[in-house]
Every structure is written in structure tokens, then in C-alpha cells.
Design brief:
The structure holds two protein chains of two kinds. By secondary structure, chain A is an alpha+beta fold. Helix content of chain A is 47%, strand content 14%. Chain A is built from eight helices and seven strands. The relative contact order of chain A is 0.09. Chain B is flat and about 105 Å long. Classes of the chains: A alpha+beta, B alpha+beta. Chain B: It holds the Pfam family DUF3375.
């Protein structure tokens, strides 16, 4: 790099990393392999489940402080619900600070949002009964049919859209397919934290605004 | 009871799962299948195992000479049985797969039918004496008059004295073998019923748990009596009728003295001469009695404690307040969405964004150079060896066709006289497929019952169709062996 002679850079020498555990050639990391796996799982998403991923959960508990700090370096916040046995990351609230966003997000269509509401409702009901929330594709299509236009002439088209929305939820791991059953899914308990009461309120507000807009559009169109 | 009340009552019963199962069109097959799958050995099965085993049984039934055909697939039957209330399904904590078990009604039906086929005199002497004992005991225990109570005890002592006198003089009358056997079977029957009762107790707990939770959430007005009791730390499930009677039973079972006494008595009983005439499974049941009881009982107890803990946590964490709130919010949101449905297309984008919890890493290092050779399509045409016929599809194919199994069996039987083992292709070398594809399917079907499937192996077979054309198929490699030749006779 060419520097002008009078230009000076303050170089703070970074302390050399502590001799690492040397898991692979050129490894300068210091965490044991399980902790690193937990970190990767958190980044890759969607969550760490204490029941199904015991080793990762144990590592997460042991190295919580270190992992939290590593995630903070990336403007991420670790959310851990010990009682429910679930952990995941979300964008940290950085206030005024303009920070890069590592996590993906998903803009939702109308049908996506009503599906989300329905799934959240299923979680509430399952919680009330102390069981896990299991849903079936056909039942979802049925349940959502109330949101179909009154004058709809395209029932099959609507069902197809619901199925597509289910597909999206599956891709984003809100729904996890159960083994050994056709088209039956568990609603991830993480949805409780991802889609909280405040989010439901925000969505209600979005609906209200949309309604206002349509009314305005109609008026101006006349 | 008036006759028409009685009839109305039975009408209602007939609509319930137990009677519906017994009255089902395929009841014998159905009860047999349910019993084999979920009653005899395993009481619970993961979904995939149940599907697989049921399909296996269905195939076997359809390939056999049973007059009935069960044309639907395993998933279709399971879905139907769930809707009829014969099966129950739940997703256990921590599992990635749902589990199935018989509903209490189906278990009762299986037991009822099983009882019909077991040879048993309805009013045996031992059953009667059991009743007499019970009645006498109850009469005694409900007696509040000291004088008559004393009198009864005195009579009992006289009887015992007389018996002791007889024994001293060398006269021991033990009950004879036949009666002892009868009495033992009576005990086995009782024990069996006891084990089934656990199922119903667990259902009770589940129902209670659901009821309590629903009441806590729905009970908007004020803190209800139920909540008050829960806050006081009252174990509402344990103190229900079901909970109390289960707890009493559990205590008795866990009383060390009692269970040692029981185990010893069982051992003694089994060492008696008449016990040799018991069937093997009857002996097994008696020997493992306390073990089975403890195992089944502890399952119920775990369920109960799980509910108790869950309910307590639910109330203490004030989770129900949150739930009530969230419930209202969700309903509001859904109502708003409903108002939009006529104006908004389902696929319309909303400004609402769901933040996901996964990151997508993209690095230059992930780029791979495109090698155009990979995209080139290989223009060579390979001659097909024939379509693959899988063993799984055989059952269905057999159900759809009429196959002369007798002729096929005769062919194999004949050939095995001079050879140790035969594959289907080898059979076809000697006897051309007279029934065309039907012969192939028939051989495969026979092989699933009498042959040995070679893991992963396949072979190619050819046969001449009715139109004179040669046809080919690849089928699983199976062997008919000499040891099983008699099965084909």
C-alpha cells in the first residue's frame, strides 16, 4: 500500500490470539469444537433446541458469555428461553447506530400473515393444553378458507396459495415436518418469541392501514 | 329402566368408538390388526413403525387366501381409524415423530373380543366365591354394631380354630387342581383388566389437565375458585377422584412388604403342580406381574406428575395472563384480516416483515467455475433392462388381479425336490409364465411369505405376453429354499 509521507495511521497492534486448540491447519480459534458448532448453528439458524440438540445446548450454556460476546461483534443478540429449551439469534437493537444486517427477513403477503396468525393461535391453544402444536396441511387450507374472497371463483387457486404459504413457513423453519406422517408439521415453539404480542399488534396496525389505503384508492378512483 | 330409554341409551353407545369398531364391516380384520399392532407386544408405536408394520400386514392379508381384501393403503386406514376414535396420536416431548396407541375404547373392544374366544365358563365356582367373600367382607366392614361385629369375629375365630385342629390331626384339604387352575385364571383375568384400567386413568388425567387449563384461560372475569386453589399450592389433579384412587393404588404397589408378599405368593403358586397346566403366557404374566404393574403404573404416574408440574408452572409464571392477552390480540388481528379479505388479494404483499433467525453467508470463496462439460447431455441411449417391480407394490398388484397361486406353488414345490434353492428367474426357466405378469406378481407375493429376500439384490426376468411379445422387468432377488418346501405343498 502506498502512503503519502505525511499521512500517519495510528496502528493499534492487535494482541496475538492465545494459542488455540488447533482443530485444523491455520486454526486461531480458542473455543472447543462443540461451542463453535453451537455458534454456527445459531448463525445458520433457525434455533438450538435443548431436547433435540443436547450437546449443542450444553455447549451453549457453558460458553454463553463468550458466545454472546462473539455474536455482539456481529450486532446480533442471543435469545435464550431456558424453560422452553430454545435459543436463537436476532438483530440487536442498535438504536441510532447504522449497522449491517446479517439475518434474513421475509416480506409477507396477506395470506402469509393470516397463516402466521393462525399458527400463533395454534401455539397458544397447544400451550393451554400442555401439548406440542401439530398442524396438518389440509386442515390449514380449511382453516384459512375464511379469508378467501366472498365472491371467489377460484377455490383451487386459493388452496394453492395457502400451500405455497405453508411451503414458505417450512422453508423458514416455522413449520417442521414430522417424520412418518404425510403433511403433518410441528409449529416451532420459537415462534412464540419470533412473533410476540407486540408483533401481533403491529400486524393489526398494518391491516388497519391497508384497509384505509384501499378505501382511499377507491375514493380517488371514482 | 324403561325399554325405550334403554334402547335410546344403546343407540348412543352404538355411535361411540367401541361399538362402532365391533360393528365395522371389517371388524374381524380390524380388531385382529389393532390387537397385533398395538395390544399384544407394543402398546405404543412411532408413526413410521406403525405405517410400515400395518402395510406389511395388509400386504400379507391381501396376498393370503383370506376371503377379505383390504384395498386401502396403511396411511389411509390409519387416518380413518384416527377419525373413528380407534387410535390416538400424540407428539411426545422431545420426539421428532408422533406416537400412536389404541384408544381406551378400542382397547376395551379388543379385550372384549379376546374374552369371547377364550374358553371360560361364565359363572365359575371361584368367581362366585369371590363375590361371596367380597359381600361378606363389605357387610362386616360396614357393621357399626359392636355386638354383632364381635359375634362375627368370634365365628371367624371358631372357624380358624376348627381348621387348625383338622390340620393338626393330619387332614389338609387343599383345593384340587381343576379348581385351582380356574381360580388362577380368574386372578389373571383380573390382573389383565387392572392393567387396562391404567389406560383409562391416564385419559382421565389428560382430560382434567385440558379442562383446568382451558378454565384458567377462559375464566376472564375474576380469579376463579380454581385459580385460588392452585395459588394455594393445591394439587388439583392429584386431588381429583381419578388422582386419589390412582395414588392409593400406587402406594399399595410400592409398599415393600406388600409387594414382597405378593411376589412370594406368586412364586409359590407357580411351583404348585397344577400351575404346569397354565399356558406359557399366563405363567409369564403371573411371574412378571409386579414388574408390569410398576411399569405401566409409573408411566401413568409420570404423566400425572408432568401435568401437575406443568399446571403449577403455568399458574405461577402467570403464563395464563399473557395467554389471555395474546388470545385477544390474535382474535383482533384475525378480525381485521377478515375485513380485508374482499379487498386484498391473497398474494398481495404487506409491509409486514417476519424477521428470521438464520443468516445467509455469501462469500466469494463459494463461487465455483462453471464447467460446460457437466452440462453436456449424454446422447447415448441405453437399452432398458425392464421396469422395476418393488416388493412394496406387490400387495396392491395382487389385490387387483386374479392369480392362480396353486399352480405357481406346485411349480416351485416340484422344482425344489431336486434343488436347494431357486430364484424366480430360475423358476421361469423351467416353467414359462403362463399367467404373464400375473405369474411374476404371484411368485413375488409367494416369496414375501415363503422365500428369503436378498438384501438389495435384483434380477431380470422375461416372459411372453398373450400377444406373443416378450416383456422384461427387474425384480428384487428372492430365494425359495428347500427348508421351506413343505410350506408350498
Amino acid at each position: 500500500m502506498n502512503l503519502l509521507e505525511d499521512e500517519r495511521i495510528d496502528v493499534v497492534v492487535e494482541p496475538a490470539p492465545e494459542p488455540g486448540t488447533g482443530l485444523f491447519a491455520g486454526d486461531t480459534g480458542v473455543l472447543p469444537v462443540e461451542a463453535r458448532r453451537a455458534l454456527c448453528q445459531l448463525l445458520a439458524g433457525p434455533s438450538i433446541d435443548a431436547m433435540r440438540q443436547e450437546a449443542l445446548w450444553a455447549a451453549l450454556q457453558r460458553f454463553e458469555t463468550t458466545l454472546r460476546s462473539l455474536l455482539s461483534e456481529m450486532f446480533l443478540e442471543l435469545v435464550m428461553d431456558r424453560e422452553a429449551g430454545i435459543a436463537f439469534v436476532r438483530q440487536a437493537d442498535t438504536g441510532e447506530l447504522d449497522t449491517p444486517v446479517l439475518l434474513r427477513s421475509h416480506p409477507l403477503t396477506f395470506i402469509d400473515t393470516v397463516l402466521l396468525l393462525h399458527l400463533r393461535q395454534q401455539l397458544v391453544e397447544a400451550d393451554a393444553q400442555g401439548v406440542r402444536a401439530v398442524v396438518e396441511e389440509a386442515a390449514l387450507v380449511d382453516a384459512l378458507s375464511v379469508y378467501e374472497k366472498n365472491v371467489s371463483t377460484d377455490r383451487a387457486g386459493f388452496a394453492k396459495r395457502v400451500v405455497a404459504a405453508i411451503g414458505k413457513m417450512r422453508e423458514n423453519r416455522v413449520l417442521e415436518r414430522l417424520r412418518g406422517s404425510e403433511e403433518r408439521y410441528e409449529v416451532t415453539p420459537a415462534l412464540k418469541l419470533m412473533f410476540s404480542a407486540e408483533d401481533v399488534l403491529a400486524l393489526t396496525q398494518v391491516y388497519r392501514e391497508l384497509r384505509g389505503e384501499t378505501v382511499v384508492e377507491e375514493l380517488s378512483g371514482e | 329402566m324403561k325399554l325405550h330409554d334403554r334402547i335410546a341409551g344403546y343407540r348412543r353407545l352404538r355411535d361411540q368408538a367401541l361399538w362402532r369398531l365391533l360393528a365395522a364391516d371389517h371388524a374381524p380384520e380390524l380388531v385382529g390388526l389393532l390387537q397385533t399392532l398395538l395390544h399384544d407386544a407394543d402398546r405404543r408405536l412411532p408413526a413410521s413403525a406403525l405405517h410400515e408394520r400395518l402395510q406389511h400386514h395388509l400386504d400379507a392379508i391381501n396376498a393370503s387366501d383370506l376371503p377379505r381384501e383390504l384395498p386401502r393403503t396403511a396411511p389411509a386406514y390409519i387416518a380413518h381409524w384416527l377419525s373413528q376414535g380407534f387410535l390416538e396420536r400424540r407428539l411426545p416431548e422431545g420426539a421428532s415423530e408422533e406416537e400412536y396407541e389404541l384408544s381406551a375404547a378400542a382397547a376395551q373392544a379388543v379385550r372384549f373380543i379376546g374374552g369371547l374366544s377364550a374358553r371360560r365358563q361364565a359363572a365359575t365356582e371361584s368367581r362366585l366365591s369371590l363375590v361371596i367373600q367380597q359381600v361378606a367382607q363389605l357387610a362386616e366392614q360396614t357393621d357399626t354394631d359392636p355386638a354383632s361385629r364381635l359375634q362375627a369375629l368370634q365365628a371367624e375365630r371358631d372357624r380358624i380354630d376348627a381348621e387348625m385342629e383338622r390340620v393338626r390331626s393330619g387332614k389338609v384339604d387343599a383345593i384340587n387342581g381343576q379348581r385351582a387352575l380356574e381360580r388362577t385364571r380368574e386372578i389373571i383375568q383380573l390382573a389383565d383388566e387392572l392393567v387396562e384400567d391404567f389406560r383409562r386413568v391416564r385419559d382421565d388425567f389428560e382430560r382434567l389437565n385440558r379442562e383446568f387449563r382451558e378454565r384458567i384461560i377462559d375464566d376472564d372475569a375474576q380469579r376463579g375458585e380454581l385459580l385460588d386453589r392452585l395459588f394455594e399450592g393445591v394439587d388439583v389433579i392429584g386431588e381429583s377422584d381419578a388422582g386419589r384412587s390412582f395414588q392409593a393404588f400406587w402406594n399399595l404397589l410400592n409398599n415393600v412388604e406388600q409387594s414382597i408378599q405378593l411376589d412370594n405368593a406368586m412364586e409359590t403358586l407357580l411351583s404348585r403342580n397344577f400351575a404346569r397346566r397354565l399356558q406359557r403366557d399366563e405363567r409369564v404374566l403371573l411371574r412378571g406381574f409386579t414388574g408390569v404393574m410398576l411399569e405401566r403404573g409409573s408411566q401413568v404416574r409420570d404423566v400425572m406428575q408432568h401435568f401437575v408440574r406443568g399446571l403449577r408452572g403455568f399458574v405461577q409464571s402467570r403464563g395464563y395472563l399473557e395467554q389471555r392477552h395474546l388470545n385477544q390480540l390474535l382474535k383482533q388481528a384475525q378480525a381485521e384480516a377478515l375485513q380485508l379479505r374482499d379487498e386484498t388479494a391473497a398474494g398481495r404483499r404487506t409491509p409486514f416483515i417476519l424477521p428470521l433467525t438464520s443468516a445467509r453467508l455469501r462469500s466469494l470463496s463459494q463461487w465455483r467455475l462453471h464447467d460446460p462439460r457437466h452440462a453436456r447431455v449424454d446422447g447415448n441411449v441405453e437399452r432398458s433392462g425392464g421396469a422395476m417391480i418393488s416388493l412394496d407394490s406387490v400387495g396392491e398388484l395382487v389385490a387387483q388381479s386374479e392369480i392362480n397361486f396353486r399352480g405357481l406353488k406346485r411349480d416351485i414345490h416340484g422344482l425344489l425336490a431336486s434343488r436347494d434353492q431357486l430364484s424366480i428367474a430360475q423358476v421361469l426357466d423351467a416353467h414359462p409364465a403362463e399367467q404373464g405378469l400375473g405369474s411374476i406378481i404371484g411368485f413375488l407375493s409367494l416369496a414375501t411369505r415363503h422365500g428369503v429376500v436378498s438384501e438389495g439384490g435384483t434380477e431380470d426376468v422375461s416372459w411372453q405376453g398373450g400377444d406373443g411379445q416378450w416383456r422384461h422387468a427387474r425384480i428384487p432377488l428372492v430365494w425359495f429354499t428347500k427348508e421351506k418346501r413343505h410350506e408350498l405343498a
